[in-house]
Amino acid sequence: MICHYKMRQAQLVALMMLLALLGVVAMPPIADARNVTPFVVAVPEVSGPIASDSSSFPFIADGFDVEPPVPFGYIEEEFFVSGTGNIYEYTPTGIRVVDPCPEIAERGCTLLSYTTRMLVKRPRDLRDFSGTVIIEPLNSLVNHPGYFLTSGVEGLKAVKEADHPHVKLLFDIYHQQVQEGNIVDTLAKNVQHIAVFHVADCPGRHDPGTGELHYSNIYKAIAKTAFRGQIAMEYLPLAEQVASLTQAVGELRRAIS
C-alpha cells in the first residue's frame, strides 16, 4: 500500500498569477488570516517567443516529431517565464512563507529567482477563443520531484478561485493516488470542476486492473455524477497495445452501462 504524504506548497498563487497575465482570470484579493501576514506575489516577466526548429523544439509541441500540425486558426509559441518567488505552505487559516525554512532548502525560502518555459497554444484571433484552460496536478513522490502543483485538492482550489467556465481540472487518477489517494470522494464532490480524467493503475502507471486501484468502482462513481467530459486512457501497457486498449475500454463501458 502506498503511503500518501501531502506536500503543500502554495505555488498555486503563481499559477493564478499566470492565468491573470494571460487574461483568463482576474487575480482575487488575498484574504487576511489570523496567523498569516498578508502578502503580494510579484508578477513574473514573460519573454519570447522562443524560436523553434527541427533540431530544437518543446516537448509535445505541435508540428514537430510525431505530433500533429498546429490546428487551423491557432498559433503555438514557447515563452520564458522568470521572476523571484518564495516557498509557501498552507496553515489552518491561510497561506504563508514556510517557517521555519527547512535545511533541505539550500537556497533559502525567500527571494528565489526562477526561470521556466511555457508552451502556449492560442487562436490567432483571440476573439475566436472558445476553449478551456486545463490544469493538471502531477505527483512529486514518484514521477515529478520538485513539481509545483502536486495535489488534486490544491488544483481544484485554484480552479474554484479562478471561478471561470473556461478553467477546469485534468484529474489524473494515477497521480492523485500516488500523491494523496481519496479518489472517489474527491471526484464525486468536485466533478463540476473537472474536464478530463486520465486512467492508469498504481503503482507503475500500467493497465487499469493491474494495480491497487479498483477501477470498476471509480468508473461507477463517475457515472453517478453529471460528468460530461472525457475519460482518456494514459498508461504504459503491459500487454500488446491494441489488445490492452481494447480490454481497458471494454471494462470502462461495462462499468458505466
Describe this structure in words.
- The longest helix has 16 residues, at 241-256.
- The strands form 3 sheets. A 4-stranded parallel beta sheet has the order 6-7-8-9. Strands 1-2-5 form a 3-stranded antiparallel beta sheet, with no helix packed on it.
- The protein has helices at 12-21, 152-162, 173-179, 183-190, 215-223, 241-256; strands spanning 45-50, 74-85, 88-91, 94-97, 112-123, 133-135, 167-172, 194-199, 230-233.
- It contains 6 helices and 9 strands.
- Strand 3 (88-91) and strand 4 (94-97) form a beta hairpin.
- The chain has 257 residues and is α/β, with parallel strands linked by helices.
Helix-strand layout with pairing:
Blueprint: H1 12-21, E1 45-50, E2 74-85, E3 88-91, E4 94-97, E5 112-123, E6 133-135, H2 152-162, E7 167-172, H3 173-179, H4 183-190, E8 194-199, H5 215-223, E9 230-233, H6 241-256
Parallel strand pairs: 6-7, 7-8, 8-9
Antiparallel strand pairs: 1-2, 2-5, 3-4
Helix pairs in contact: 1-2, 4-5, 5-6
